[in-house]
Protein 1
Amino acid sequence: MVKKQKKSVSSGNQDQASYKIIIIDDDESVNRLIQRTLDREGFRTESARTGKEAFSKFTGRDDEILLLDYQLPDMTGKEVLRSLSKKYQRIHFVIMTGHGDEKIAVDMMKLGARDYIIKRPNFIYLLTPKIKRVCAEIDKERHFMQTEESLKESEEKYKASFNKSRDAILVFSRERRIVDVNQRFVELSGCLETELESMHLQVLFPETADPKTEERLRSMLHGKEIPIFEAKLLTKNKMIIPVEIGVTMLTNCYDQEFVFQANIRDISRRKQAEADKTKLEEQLRRSQKLETIGTLAGGIAHDFNNILTPIMGYADMALADLPSTNPLRNDLEAILNGAYRAKDLVEQILLFSRQIEKERKPLGLHLIVKEGLKLIRPSIPTTIDIRQRIDDSCDKIMADPSQMHEVVVNLCTNAWQAMEEKGGTLTIELRQVEVDAATAKSNPNLKEGQHVRLTVSDTGTGMDDAILERIFEPFFTTKAVDKGTGMGLSVVHGIVRGHHGDILVYSEPGKGTTFHVYLPVTSSEKKISKKELAAIQGGEESILVVDDEEVVLNVVQKMLKRLGYKVDICNRSIDALKTIRRHPEKYHLVISDLTMPDMTGLILSERLQQIRPEFPTIIMTGFGESLQEDILHHYGVHEVTGKPIIIRELAAVIRKVLDT
Amino acid sequence: MHILVIEDDAEVRDMVCKMLKDEEYEVVSAINGREGMELLRNESNIDLVITDILMPEKEGIETIRELKRDYPSIKILAISGGSRFLLHDFLRSAKLLGADLTLSKPFVKKDLLKVVKLLLE
């Protein structure tokens, strides 16, 4: 349904209704005539006969207009106004006088009358237009005042937001001089407000000397918007703060045709977070790259050994068949030498790719470091000063001694070779450090906890970022062709990562290089608090522990007893088998070492399955991942736990086996 | 003395056979574990099996396991180019897989003969 819209009868009506006309005239007939006329036109009206009555009707509102006859019984119009103006500031009034009193009308106009009406015959026809005009005039004034008011209000609001803004705000002129700043900018710049006055932008933003800035401002003058950009703010204390700037142009402010307002946001935190993230990603990428190269190299090494086998084998046999005078012997010997060199190289690749897992044992790294230093010392030129700071009290690490030796010798050799020409200082430091959560977070290869840190520093040639990026890659070398294979650092990297550690490097061209090697300390020696122990789930079952090493047996026995188990130990696998044969139901679980002289843990497990199918067995091994799932399954092994034995892990594995 | 050589790489296989034949050993060869086991069923006089471990593939390990189970008296020499891990502690690690001895590639004749002699004595 379409609603018929009501058409307003007169667009003026509404305006008139908003004014109240107070008619003050003692002439009853005139008063009534005026009132009727104005009522008809839509005005609100009231009437008064005397000045005194007028006072009671007038409330001082801005929408009231006095239509005032000059001659009243109790006072003149002038007196009425005088007493009202004591109370009210703005009084709208129109004066009415008799014929011949024009002079009075003029006087009253001077006092602020909006208009005057001479009460001639038929004056009533002039009345309405006059009142309407007065209303329109007041309307206009009121509108103007309102605008002025809201302008003032918005200016105050602007000032408040300007000063309280979390962004620093800077207003500058076309000449790039500061016109105004807010409190935040004063804080950010570290300058006093007075110092900032008229300061050239270039002082705070040295980059703006760039012609680009001028170009930007000019394009803004042509009405173009420029996108938010990043810049650097130079503070009074010569600190550089990365900021984000959005510039807008303001017209007709600060008594200038154009000014520019720059909203400046401190983004140093964001920048830092971004930089951290990039660094982390970079590290991850680099470490993944090395893993990939390692896998690839390891795979190639396997095939390469197959290829080398006939080369070496046949050259050797041919050599054996030739009489010692045959000139071909030299050629064959050269082939054989080449093959041996290739063999060594493949071994190094395997070391890098961590395919060589040797048995590890608790090791005091300080002994290896000292021994390694003793070995290479004679080859180090006397122009190099050697400083050692080795803490003998560091905890032990689980490591292969020969591989650790290789790490020490490799790092030290690289270090002194970097100082060979000019001499310098080689510093070797060993100490125990705690890797905290933050460090672990920023170095994905490091786990939280106690580590032994080997630091090897030189004051030699140093490296730039492009070289640093690649130093752990196999075959990457900056040395002369005959000085090295480029495998040294990649082998070090492979060994350190294979020991669950990490190697970090810092270097600056011309200043030197520092390598930090972090290796986790062995946790078997770590004391576990009672509270921690309480959180570890134990049990009451009977367990037989088998290991040929008494030390391990004792440690494991102690751990299991603390967990509440009944424990028997046995240092020969054959004896363990005999015990179980005699009492097949006595033990709920057998925990056995993997490698033992007369029978391995695997065979023991297999035999146990024959006595009692599904006999729960756990194998302890230092080889870790080198035992394959299918082998374990074949021998009936339930679980594997790595050496060194950690009580928390052992407890969990036992429950896993016994509870399923 | 009779020796069975199981090796998938033809050049390595031929070379190992030649090295052994030169020393008057009776040699038969197979290109994988399955073929090797078949040969064994027909030739009961084998004293030693030389087999590639083929790490990390299942086949080599399975062959060794089957050999140990079905022919406990036959000696086993495992050869591998994959990893020196096996070389580390000769006897212990070899026993772990059921092989009597292991030899890592590449090797020359005298290396091979040394371990073969050790096993056949």
Protein 2
Amino acid sequence: MIVRRLLAVLIAGASLGAAPAPAPNPETDRVAFQSYFFTKFPNVKHEEFGNGPYAVNAPMRKQWEEIMQFPPYEPALDEGREAFEAPFANGRHYSDCFDNGGDGIRQTYPRFDTKTGEIITLDGAINACRVSNGEKPLPLQTGVMASITAFMSESSRGKPFDIKIPADPRALAAYERGKEFFYARKGQLGFACASCHVQGAGERLRGDILAPALGILAAFPIYRSDWGAMGTIDRRFTSCSAQTRAVPLPAQAAAYREVEYFLSYMSNGIPITGPGTRP
Amino acid sequence: MKTASFAFLGLMLCASAMAATQPDAEATFKAAQSEEALAKAEQAAWTTTETTLADAQKSLTAQKWDEAKALADEALALAKRSRAQATEQKTLWQDAVIR
């Protein structure tokens, strides 16, 4: 009898003391996320975070400023403008698929699509536009896709990320899955995205200076010297996965779109700097 | 002389017990493939498991049963570990969140 009462008291005490799991709150997350980086890099102007490693490492910045005399992504900008302005076989254009004719809208992607309950990235929207106009989707990691997103990003330069999470439980769930993907360790090396871009931000990993996660997608697409070519966010995600010895997911996999949604929301207020260049 | 003969016989028996047979190697390879398929479905697969499985397949084709068995064992262990990592991280990731 005494034992049973004691157990009842213990169970009651435990249930009173157990703190309920906090409800997901993207805005609270964003404020904490940005404060972390503003505190870690007190001398970096907030709008500079879109410049990745060049914002936090002076010698690299100097080299970058010299590279930017002749930006290596310029041929992609020309190709992107030409592709964007060319009509589809049905006579319609990319501009018919986007708000404001596609001008200055990159900072609002990714978006949550209330019809499908899915996250739509800019790259995904470009391919959806093609398919809806009877064209084949473009390969997602480089080539014309990178050129079109470069052209569209340039029209958004200086505009701060403005990602919305609508009051829809599916949007919040997608955000939470993206957050989990960012912080969960993966691959045989056991690295999370956060291992390099939060804990390791600004540090050197072999020959690279690791970019802070804040604003990390603002410069995409990028011309990467290591690739010798332009690459999209998908290209970066798949190569990051492989570097941790995780089998990369297919480009535009739901998990990649969701982590892009999470990271872009975390960067709300940080200006678009793309297209960019990286070592 | 008698002791030496017994030792030699013992060694021969051990060696034959340790040598992998074709069915052993193939069974382990299938087990590793199944485990890796589950890891992929859970988006938890490792590139090292994939390359080790591919090497095991090559050894099977070359009828090198010992080598195939050893590689398949390794691939199986890697696939199991990758799935265990994904299970652990389902809760552990929350400890890393910036708050």
Protein 3
Amino acid sequence: MNGKHQSLIDSLSSDIENKQRTVLSANRVTALWLFIYIPLLASLMWWLAPFRDNVLTQLLTTPRFALETVLGFLSVSLLAYCAIKSSVPGSLSRPIFWLTVSVTVSWIGHISFGLYVPALEPSMAGKRPQCYFEALYYSVPASIVLNVLVLRRYTLTPFSSGLLAGASAGLVTALMMQVACMYDAYHGLTHHLIPAAAVALVSAVAVYLIAAISKRSASA
Amino acid sequence: MPLHRRRFSTMAKVLDDEQRWADLMRLAHTGDSQAYNVLLQELSSAITAYLRKRFGYMAFVDDCVQESLIAIHHARHTYQFGRPFKPWLFAIVKYKTIDALRKNQRIENQYVSELESDVDSNGDSMSSGYAVNDKVEQQLLTSQLLSLLPIHYGKAMVLTKLMGFSVCDTAKMLDISESAVKQHVRRAIVKTRALLEADAI
């Protein structure tokens, strides 16, 4: 049987370079995401327009708001982890994937539940006039960075990988907006989470198209 | 050899393969083309055996092996040392198998061309039709994965995707409409994908 593929094997093995490019592990990317990107984003947002005044007190005195924020942090970290894992064949396990989906759905569900029973008293305090566009602007570079990391690997599921990367980039900004901008569940859903969903969708389509084009050019 | 000893030796071989392939990949990453050649040869045999067990002896299997080897070559930088080799390898193989099934182009199949030349020379299309049917039945019975598909899905998929018949010919052979053939093939691919993903290595 090997005889049939021997010429292919010979040409492939003559093609290997002496030095292989290395890729960052999913753990490292998630750590960089959490400890470098989020503080950088927070600093930039603070510099452009300060966070709402009483946010720390709200976090310490309102368990539901604290829970919502923790769920948000878990969600964006797990989404970044899954995006990177999904770009290495056979690496993303189903339990981790479903845990990520559950945490993200719980977070968005918690915000939606706030439409009926708000975690905090809705108020205009801290309102950022351009928060919808800010949410888009901050998400796009983060999404590009994560997608480049995904495409440098070998994703078998480009649409899902792009969706996970875009969701992580979009939701991290939405999370920061929930802390920085005015608190109102309806405002959070329409002005912070909808841009995140748009970024996730565009990212998924972009990664899918790029992967399809590179696959076609590789086979041509 | 007693059963327990045979099982033990099979398990030891599986562990040996895992370790050896990981070591060969490590050498390949340092630029050792000889080790990489050996690795690809061993993987070629392993993938062929894996696919033959599930799809039988078909030209389709050779195409999948070739596509898988090229994909392994492009994805080799994503293998992380210290992690199991087989899940990485078979994720690629399964993906390439489904990808090959999804492709619309007809595969080059010697069996079909032989059959068509038989029909041309003898004009006996009836006996050729029976021969194809026998071949399909045999294929569905002997291959591990195809035998799990519902019979009408399995037949449509074997005829179109694995044996290389056109949708029109398949519709005539199965005595159903062309759109029904397409639908059966689509569902067969979905089912095959689920079966392959659930398949523990």
Protein 4
Amino acid sequence: MPRVTRALQQSYPRFIRSSPGSYRINKAIASAEAIASTQRRRVQLVGRHGAFISRTSSGYEEEEDDQQRTSYLNELKGASAKSAYTKDFQQQIDHAKVIAVKDNFVTERLPTTCASSILNGFTGNAESTVCRILQEVGMDIAGKTNMDEFGMGSHSQNSAYGPVQNGFGKNAQSPGGSSGGSAMAVADGIVSIAIGSDTGGSVRLPAAYTGTVGFKPSYGRISRNGLVPYANSLDTVGIIARNTNDVMALFQILDKYDPADPTSLRPESRTRIHEARRKRQVDFGHHYLESEDVKFSFVGPRSKGETPAETSMPRDRYKRYTSGYLRRIGVPNEYNIAEMHPVVRQAWLRTLSMLANKGHTIVPISLPNTKLALAAYYVLAPAEASSNLAKYDGVRYGTPRDLSTADNENGLLYANYRGEHFGEEVKRRILLGTFTLSAAAKDNYFVQAQKVRRLVQQDFNNVFAFGHPLLPHTRHQNSSSDRTVDLIIVPTAPTPPPKIQDLEGQSPVQSYINDVFTVPASLAGLPAISVPAAADEDIPATPDRHVGMQVIGQYGDDLNVLNFTRYDIEGTMNFDEARELTWSRKRM
Amino acid sequence: MLQRWTAGRFLRLPRFARFDLTPEALNKRIPQRRLLSTTKSPNAELAPLRKQLKDAARADRTARHAGVKATCTSKAETLSQWELTVGIEIHAQLNTSVKLFSYASAEYNEHPNASSWPFDLAVPGSQPLFQPAVLVPALRAALALKCQIQSRSKFDRKHYFYHDQPAGYQITQFYEPFAKDGRLVLTPQDGLGHKDDDTIEVGIKQIQLEQDTARTQEQDEHTSLIDFNRSGHALIEIISLPHLHSPEAAAAYVRKVQSILHAVDATTTGMELGGLRADVNVSVRRTDDRSARHSYSGVTGLGQRTEIKNLSSFKAVEDAVRAERDRQISVLEAGGVVEGETRGWSLSSPGITRRLRGKEGEVDYRYMPDPDISPLYIDESLVTHFQRTLPPVPEQLLDMLCTTYGLTIDDSRALLSLDDGTRLLYYQDVVSRLYTDTAQPRPSVQAANWVLHELGALLTTASTVWSPDLVDAQQMADLIVLQRENKITGPSAKRLLRILFDGDKSSVAEIVRREDLLFISMTNEEYDELAARVIGEHQAEADAVRQGGKRSSGKLKFLLGQMMRHGGRNRVQAQKAEEVLQSKLKPNDV
């Protein structure tokens, strides 16, 4: 234990052991930079823990001076003295709606690099739909967060602009990937909420490793327009926040049809989903409060001891809700793998027993094709990636081509340029995808993987009581037989976050195994959220023991997943106590 | 948001200098040249056009000086032992106002790089938005080629790296095209070879929608300039079955496809302007050899084929097929083996095809379903609508002119081919204003004579470009009616047309009155009297006619001319007058 505590001290001096005052100031700087955005400039910098690639700045270079920062702080103090929430600096900062966005969303004011050297200096000329909506509702984009190059990685180490780390030195641990920068920006308290992208677990894994909440909606609910694709058929826009309430508040803002995205769920399909869910509620006499106006927990004050869910709705409704609706929760046998770390297994059991105590029914289920899912994912995603990344040739944008990367005499066109500017992992996956799509290998790899994908989807359709609302021939029996479930709960990752130095000896395949629990939901396009698991009361919760629990729902059942998570997992006292012990949410 | 991508805003892509193509001028106009330029690949195909033309001229001269030894004398015998088989892929630019997957304008006269949306430049984060408008010309083309429209089709990505392919892949319909199983019938009138059967039915395997590439322009040895306006424009690729067996038939097929596409308004330009390009697949086998083991889409027993890419004229199609046939035969006769390979054809070396890449160097296109584009569902009612409103193809029109209108085949062809079909429309307009009667010749035939020949002669003399407004259709119809009713004589009618052609917009009746063109027929007595008078004045000629012999017909014409002159304007009908003269000047019976 002492060793762990020391590690904490070294890793997170400002947050854990330094005075509350200095924490606030650090936090204030970060937010003030975003708030005082009258004279924005693009500053290339790698933020604390390497979370940012580029940030909006209030007009100074990062290394320039503290003096100027101080004056901004004073300005802020002056402003806060006049504002409605004068008592505490914290409230003023919380009030600011500052958001961080992963660097694979195109923004007009900041460069978009996808953490790749090949897109160094590229600034798109159209805002991605997500960023446009964020700004329309009055949010400020604090910066673009670091990631694995083009989203390819599970630890945010494959960035051309330096890795993201949770902690420092030899104790630094993996923040997860590929949206590691977004997760760290939230965990560090720089922002309250961040946008990531989830292809095979890229939002859920970082959330699990950093003790934050990460949500991947159903495929097609949030527009991908302006999201630089890794694997189009799997990519979703994800949200990382400190609690599910905030995730849900932002999700309801972003959950819109976008005509610019050809894969965006069309209004007719949204209506069908809505009708199917409403019918199910009526059939069962459930009263879930799904469409209520969820407010951000960081906007405005709340009284001590209130959970975010309580803040955002009247107390009587909350009571009625939490006592009214008990779910059938599926626990798939196939996820209980031998490689699972004991800490993870215990957290899983703890969470399930907590839910059982609340009256939910735990149902053992089987998802037989789970084992094949990971292999299928690592065929399909690189195949699409090899196609998507073919456009980076330096002719139209990105790092300019020079003589050393010009077309040479051997009939090579872009090989030199691409070889020089893509990172190792990207090259590996491009090669992998090129191979699996080649005429000789395609039938054995790409075509087979697509079949597996269909089987994985069928697995889920077989266990959910709620039939897939967009497939004509799936069950709409809406009966709660012994075998069907409302939601599935599994761990997000088989282990707690690894140390970065331990990653170095890993083979790529070992690193791919990290995604084994997150990939099935991605292949089936299902909504899934990772929340910190209830802590063990006997052992202090430390960052190296972060475990994420994943709640998976049927396609289109996003609000059910979110509501269940915020009321039945986060909403318990047990959970709240656990969170008090987690460093990244320690309140001042 | 999308509307904000206006021309020129994105990346401030520089434009080509339109007229001044000197490097200095280009540098001035292109501040970020790297955006457009790439260093050149060692591909001789990309030689500047001027150089190509020069080389072509030189090669032509050399060939002539050498006495054209290329075609050997014993060829006819050799050829009879071989059977040639050709299949053709035609790429045609569809007549649409938008691109296949973006709202960018598909106009060709835009400044370079002025009409490209992010998706056409493969900008990260941009997505394809299928434009249903492209289905209009695509469906017309497919229906005109008698294809089965598929209710569900899909888009695939075809991968290869080239400067003119911004995304690194082309979106096409490889696995599930929108149209299948069409056919086209070639007849001798289409210009078949003498060895061909009377009619050839060419099967069309499929028609697929796909994206066009960007246009490349060579600036100097090291730099290519790229114009992305064409990038993403909608094309159809028409893939024929290997049903063609002569170079002439191959060219006739391409020519006919072009005329059909044009007739149903599916394309804007033809081969001459680059709107149509063809790839030909050529194979040969011995006539008596049934053991050839290659096959294509159900056609078996074929020899090894080679593909010649990017042919841009009918002549090039014919010449390239002929040259490749001769090359394959000579390879096989020398005991060699034809390699499956891709070959090129260029103006600079007429008469030979040139190896581009062999099978081992063949590109693996790694076809993959495009994950961003949902399948295309075409409703039956849409197909029915286009089927019903499909403009007639040239063959149907030819048939209509010959049977319904009673025109000769030559006149029908001429009407079809003239002035982009507007002359035909004018002709139909004129005919529709005439009434029908039982008199001969039929009004439609007479109208064709006026519209085609009389008006044509005036156009030629005046070197004027045709326009339906030159002579109003109603005026033309009035003229024809007057003549049919014998109210004006032939010469008067011609004079009247001349007046109308020169721009007189008064009514025909008005002009006839003003110019005193009306024909008032004479009685038989008047004719007799006139004839007697003329004979009296020209006894010598009359005698010559009476005597008969060589010069009699010339003299008769002279007397006729005198009758016309003396008879007063527009009154003497030549035919009648001649009859009277002949009866009066019967050769002296012995």
